[in-house]
Request: fold
Amino acid sequence: MQAAKTKAAAAGANAPIFLQKTYTMFENSPDTVAAWANNGTTIVIKDPEEFARSVLPKYFKHNNFASYVRQLNFYGFRKYKKDDIVIVDDDKTKHWWEFYHEQFLRHRPELMAQIRRKTYSENDSTEKEDVEVLKSQVVSFQNQLEQLTGQITSLTAVVSALMARSGKRPAGPMTNASALALAAASQAKRRKMGDTDSIVQL
Reply:
């Protein structure tokens, strides 16, 4: 049994370096970030941002998720699509990226040697994958922007309330930057007053 595994591993060493690194990467990645799925017939990236930040750089000289997906396509990997009948709208899995290749199977590294990189003329379909990656990144940026906008709106309301309490009015329209500056100044003033009160009590 051990001899068979050793022979399979040796055969896998003849595969392209990209595939060898990918195989090792999914063997060692945290299951919450990336893992094998469907009994070792697919690979799934559960957290693309964390995957690009902490996993990719360990095996490749970059942290570009779109570039990695493009390489998978160059080697003939395709996105795994579940049966529409069993798909459930689950926030936990809808952002997962799952791929498969008939010759890329867990515990069968010797099959990787049969995989060849596509020529340039065969890579037209990769543009669609790139668009999907960019769309996913745009959605992520939009969510972050909405969170920041909400925080700024809350800070602006706090500053306006503080100024109304003190009887002061801004000289002109309050910008986000001025709201943040006033909030910081107000907090610093309150901390200073607290320190003064402590000294008086002593």
In short: The longest strand covers residues 34-37. Residues 84-88, 198-202 have pLDDT under 50 and may be disordered. The beta strands are 34-37, 42-45, 78-79, 97-100. The radius of gyration is 27 Å.
